[in-house]
Amino acid sequence: MASEYHDCIAIKLTDADRTLKMLRLAGLLTNLKPRRLGSDELAVPVNNVERAISALLTEGISARPCKETFDVKGRPSKLSDEVPGLSGFLIIGSIVLLNYNSSVGIPAYVRAAEAISRMYPRVTSVFLKLGTTGELRLPQLVLIYGDGNTITITKESGLRLYVDVARTYFNPRLSGERLRISSLVESGERVLDMFCGVAPFSLLIASRRRASVIANDLNPYAAALAGANARLNRKLLKGNVTITRSDASALPSLLKGGFDRIIMNNPTSSPKFIEAACQLSLASGSILHVYYLAESEDLAIRAIAEEASRTCKEFTVVSSRKAIEYSPSKSIYVVDLEVKGYARRPNSLSL
Q1: Is the torsion defined by CA of 25, 27, 31, 35 positive or negative?
Q2: What is the rounded average pLDDT of the residues 194-219?
Q3: 35 phi and psi, to 5 degrees?
């Protein structure tokens, strides 16, 4: 059976019947099958995590946000049945991405694309992703099914997001991380999203907190779509989001004052920008969320800590974890640092 990564809530098994009945009546359930988490929890895929948690709290049911892989109900076949050796793919709105493996021939990927189109009638294009290239982390794509349109709208945590899969970086598998970070932000914080892409981190934070967020990206297409996404979701935002387009290393000379929290989601290059992040961190202390692609968690911590020790006044590793698996040998890890930098809090929450 086909599977998808999806936002979910985790509840106690003893609350399962009441929870599923309430969420079904509220129209918050998806076509994905709930699954067990450990011995005493159930992960329930939902289309709006915040609304689901709020609804359950009114009935005294405790729930927490999560992100898991779920089987899809009622799909006609398994991808591995159609094409042996292939099972996983990434769905972004109406577009599917398949990662290229040189051991699998192109005809097999074409059969896979045809199978996916039968499983998911809403899919309009299937691309084979050969890799990611350049400073802007743009994917190298080959069309193997459909109309070839690379722009779609995807839904995440109650937000709608324009994504151009050919000209911007977006990974739906990080939606659990975006929920985690947004839950840590407090109202009144000043947040910098250094490599915002189409702004999923920034907009989720602003939708949940009265925070001031600066969303920056060097990629002009990403910055343009970030602005479009801010307009698309403006009625949902409690905080404010300002879009900038700049090389992250130049931000200390462009932005006024320091930030309470800096998100550094550039897995291949983030340590190179820790110096700029420390210059934008508060002398009283700030939090950096640094994402890095490495062979192990220890190597990720070491690379980030070495740079922080060289460029920050003080730093402490608060936590670290695997965010997502990237390949059989590498994963994207997130290391949360508390640092003392060189900036002061600005008098106003502006640039």
Answers
A1: negative
A2: 97
A3: -140, 155
| Residue position matching structure tokens 């050919």 | 166
Q: Which amino acid is at 277?
A: A
- Two tokens at 95? 């577009």
Handedness of CA 33, 37, 41, 46 (dihedral sign): negative
Query: 319-339 b/e with 16+ CB inside 10 Å = b?
Result: ebeebbebeeeebbbbbbbbb
Provide the number of structural domains found in the chain.
3
Q: Which residues pair with 289 in a beta bridge?
A: 263, 336
Query: What mean pLDDT do residues 5-33 have?
Result: 85
pTM confidence score: 0.77
Helices (H), 83-190: 106-119, 175-184
The per-residue pLDDT for 81 is 63
Length of the chain: 351
- Based on the domain organization, do 59 and 87 belong to the same domain? no
Q: Which of 107, 109, 9, 1 is nearest to 54 (CA)?
A: 9
Average pLDDT over residues 97-114: 85
Residue type, 8: C
Can you give the residue range of the structural domain that contains 87? 79-149
Does 74 have pLDDT greater than 60?
Answer: no
Contact 41, 12 (CB under 8 A): yes
Establish if 350 belongs to a structural domain.
Answer: no
Contact in structure between 238 and 184 (CB atoms under 8 Å): no
Report which residue type is found at 9.
I
CATH for 287: 3.40.50.150
